[in-house]
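Here is one chain, start to finish.
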Amino acid sequence: MSIRAILIGGLVATLAACASAPVGPESTGRFDDFTVAAGGTADFTGYDMVFLAPIAVSDDLMERVGYQPRSLRDDIRPLSERELNAKVAQFDEQLRAKLGPVATLTDGPGLGVLTIEVTLTDLEANRPTQAELAASPGLSYESRAAGGASADVAFYEGERLLATARDTEVGTMRIDEIPGSTWYEANQFFARFASKVAGLLG
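Its structure:
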């Protein structure tokens, strides 16, 4: 089979998957966990205005900024503040890009406005980060590892909590299948998570 045929086949499969993805309340099952709050709802299709709050970072993830491994067996992977801020900004861009076509993004919460609060809870690179290389000089940039990310999201109208959701994608690819990008799996997670959040609005 030619490379052109393979690429066309992959594009068709991707478009078909996108076309068949559920939207609205039926799409809650796309998350690892989706919980409707007491007195809340899973139906956000009536909201045409959305406030995306600044993305928060969990305490556990913040503790990895500037972390110094205690030994070669220490499995906590350090991050630099610069690297973390860059990925948070990229995550925010993905969310805005997906939400923009389905809702008007506002500058703040309010009556009739769906507030979306996202917290990044895990972030793993497929290749050593600059912080890891600085902390472990013997580490090779060519080494590969399970990558990905995790995030929580809460939906509010004003101060009323409507629902929460959680998603995790870490180590979903075989090591020998991972492309050369440092953040390949994390970037894929950002795009998919943003699509799932936007899908809830229809």
